[in-house]
Amino acid sequence: MTLEHEGGAPEIFDLRTDSLPGAPKPVDLSNFQSLLRGVARLNTSRRSFLKGLSATAAGLGLLSALTAKPKKAEAFAYEPYPRDDDLKTVVTSCAHNCGSRHMLVAHKKGDVIVRLSTDDGRYQKDGHFGKDTEEEPQVRACLRGRSYRLRLYSPERLLYPMMRVGERGEGKFKRVSWDEALDFIAHKMVEIKQKYGPTALLDQSYAGASYGVLHKSDQIEGLLGRFLGMFGCRTSSWSVPSYQGTTFSSRITFGTIEDGNEDDAFAHSKLIIMWGWNPAYTFHGGNTFYYMRLAKQRGCKFVLVDPQYTDSAAAWDAWWIPIRPNTDAAMMAGMAHYIFTNNLQDQAFIDRFVQGMDEGTMPGWAKAQGHESFKDYILGKNDGVPKTPEWASEICGVPAEDIKKLAHMYATIKPAALKASWAPGRNAYGEQYNRMAAALQAMTGNIGVLGGSSEGVGKAFHLPAVAYPYDQYANVWFASIKSDRWAHCVLNYPNVKREEIGLWPRTDQLDGVIPNIKGIFWQGSDWFNQLTNINKEIEAIRKLELVVCMDSTITPSGLWADVLLPVATHFERHDIALPWYKGHYFIHRPKVIEPMGESKTDFQIFTELAYRLGFGPQYNPKATREYFFNPDPVDEAYLRAFWEREVMGHMGVEMSWEEFKKRGVYKFKLKEPHVAFRDQIEKGVPFNTPSGKIEIFSTTLAQIKDFTRTAYGYPIPPIPKWIEPWEWLGDKKKTKKYPFHLVTPHPRWRTHTIFHNIPWLRETYEQEVTINAADAKRLGIKTGDIVEVYNDRGKVVVPAYVTERVMPGVAVLHEGAWMDLDENGVDRAGNPDFLTLDNPSPAGAFAYNTILVNIRKTTLAHRPGWDRLATARSVVYRRDD
Q: Residue 875 pLDDT more than 60?
């Protein structure tokens, strides 16, 4: 950062390391140990101590003072904590994609939030304190949301527009005016478009920091996508990091990603299989644990299939089945073999609702072309390899008898919910795991029934979600690539094949044209820290001409930007919150406090940029240019129109906009639990697939002649199959050098990178690599030892945690740590994406969990944060001098 001094040269500060003049100095603790030793040497009894104290006090003439009548305190060392009667209470919500968006209740004094609480049952219509029923459960915030004040007021808060003054990635910036920042961006956008064409600007928005019905950072159809599309220069990123393999599977199999039940359906299950799912940390609805607790109380059995024994397994006393990472499809194939050979499948369900499960449900044209059915593949009729439990056991490491037992339980206990979570799909060929899970769900008849599950993506109760202008510019793009292939595209342009980057097909002259990417916009996303193979990203970003980061926090990605734009948090703008994939409620999100510093909303920033580029009125038709200075009346107009048109008009909600604002929440009361595909099973409504059935054999995939001209790039079989991943414990050659398979699950204390800098949460955990006790003994590693986790792509330094709760040969390192590079490019914070490969699965699944590594003790330094105190690296942003 540059500080201007009157009559002198400007000073530039490195945000990662430097202290500023006037900043607090570290406390000198050099004499503290000797002080403690001196105290420890005292061996004074309580009686002799008090006796000596009394004598000393008397000798000093203090005894009368000590025994005098107490006086009323006239001053406080700190201001008294305000009582509820002194505070204004405002209902709002959290805003991030942690699995839901729960209620937060802000208690503020003036324009400062001093406390956050959550739903206690009183705020909805007909509510009262303590109301918490199966029909209307409270939507209570987790500890991440409850700690939000520390994010809102954190030293990492971005308060002013900033521009880079050092080399990209140095973290050296100066404060500039909004005019200077926006003029620079607009000028560079025009220059890049004119010089490199309509694909030169890459849209990397995501749902990280700006997500509501009005202020939305959506990957596909958000505010940034509409802005760049209207400008006429946009390459979009089509694959979703969290669940792209699952999205592919759900659409190919069911014709929709709305394949989930609401979580209240879990309360009616007799068996719940948590396949790679840890709802204690990540959930897809507001009250997952509430309903699973009801299921447990009603006698439901729980099973966990996972390389590690999770807190969820402990909570529900689940049968833990450890499985080698990336081998889930093989184990599921073994289960299918047992079910078929023991005639345990629901044949009536298959015959009526499924295509391609067996020869009798295969379409005639497919038979004529020689395609095999799923059952034929499982029995090995074509390849001569029956997918028996014994065959599966050799691959996945699960005893054959356990595979048979689980298969028997799932086929005979009804209703049963196979919750095939997203994590095993974040692998090489992860789409095959999801499709294999759908085959098991279908062959047992557990789809469309209360207590069963067809979940892949798991999107459930449908709620309208767009209040901003939605028109022909909502998703305009001139190229679209797999999200984690941007660096490969930049580094190898123009010698790039379309299949290498998952180039989406078009019907015009731009079909097959490789994008010449020269600029990136990050809106509500920390993707530079989160996408695969970060070292490759670092190499690529140095070749760009414009990098813009829009966020409320100074993120690790932001340190690599050219321009930082401060975005108002959801406490500082007006919006409506809706759940994330599951849940049936709306929460009013008023402007609780005024934006801090010079923060603006995303909509304000894009509107002003649009005016500078000549299409402001088209981009924001309800606003004038005054919107940049006062967005409140326009935001109110958009939100009122949304509520009255979409919620009251289309959904039949009777609560008025004014009453909704007053109460702060609207909870839908469902007549019965929402079950995906209930109408298809009970009423015969066709599935939204080419055949109108559940497609275990995919019509679409079977009819593709040239996969290189599709977004997938490489062949995908029309039925689910086990396909060997490019890195796994079964590769004897690769495991000689890298004997551990690393998995990177979501942590409890972060939402990806969000909340990483919250002191309260950081007191509860350490970024560490978890290894099995037998592996640790062999390596001479103890809990707390600093180790290197490394492969050919990178190296990270973290403490080790030794336990029996992970299977041998597997290591666990949670995703989302803020990268912190030393002078040699070693990440000292423990971000696993320095170790991942940016080679996505054909269907777009990110290979976050397809990683072979080695582990060794090290003398290299581990740093849990950004600066010497492991807390804030950016107090300079708060300084105006």
A: no
96-117 residues labelled b (16+ CB within 10 A) or e (exposed): bbbbbbbbbbbbbeeeebebbe
Say how far apart CA 402 and CA 410 lie, in whole Å. 12
Give the C-alpha separation, 417 to 423, whole Å.
17
Pairing of strands 786-791, 794-803: antiparallel
Measured distance CA(857)–CA(862) in Å, rounded: 12
Type of residue found at 821: L
pLDDT in the model for residue 14: 54
Quick one: CA dihedral 270, 275, 279, 280, positive or negative?
A: positive
Is the pLDDT confidence value at 178 over 70? yes
Widest CA span of the chain, in angstroms? Answer: 109
Residue 524, phi-psi category: left (phi > 0), alpha (psi -120 to 50), beta (remainder): left
Q: Cβ distance 304 to 418 under 8 Å?
A: no
Residue 169 Rama label (left phi>0; alpha psi -120 to 50; beta): left
| DSSP 8-class letter at 127 | -
Both structure tokens of 482: 């797999």
SS3 category, 305: strand
Q: What is the DSSP string of 375-443?
A: HHHHHTTTTS----HHHHHHHH---HHHHHHHHHHHHHSSSEEEEE-SGGGSSTTHHHHHHHHHHHHHH
850, 326 contact by CB (below 8 A): yes
pLDDT at 275: 98
What digits encode the pLDDT tens for the residues 396-432?
999 999 999 999 999 999 999 999 999 999 999 999 9
Crossing angle for the helix pair 430-443 and 328-341, to the nearest 10 degrees:
20
User: How far apart (Å, rounded) are the C-alpha atoms in residues 719 and 702?
Assistant: 9
Angle 850-713-731 from CA coordinates, rounded to 5°: 30
Query: What pLDDT is attached to residue 58?
Result: 43
Beta carbons within 8 Å of 297's beta carbon, 6+ residues apart: none
Token pair 């990091």: residue: 241
Question: pTM for this structure?
Answer: 0.89
Tens digit of each residue's pLDDT (9 = 90 or more) over 270-307: 999 999 999 988 877 778 888 999 999 999 999 999 99
CA–chain centroid gap for 604, Å, is 25
For the segment 434-456, the average pLDDT, to the nearest whole number, is 97
Contact assessment for residue 418 and residue 275, using Cβ atoms and an 8 Å cutoff: yes
Pairing relationship of beta strands 173-175 and 201-203 according to DSSP bridges: unpaired
Give strand pairing partners of 419. Answer: 274
Q: What is the 3-state secondary structure (H, E, C) of 681-714?
A: HHHCCCCCCCCCCEECCCHHHHCCCCHHHCCCCC
Any idea what the Cα angle at residue 165 is, between residues 162 and 168, rounded to 5°?
95
Distances in Å between the Cα of 706 and the Cα atoms of 497, 505, 531 are 14, 12, 28
CA torsion angle 364 368 369 370 (round to 10): 100
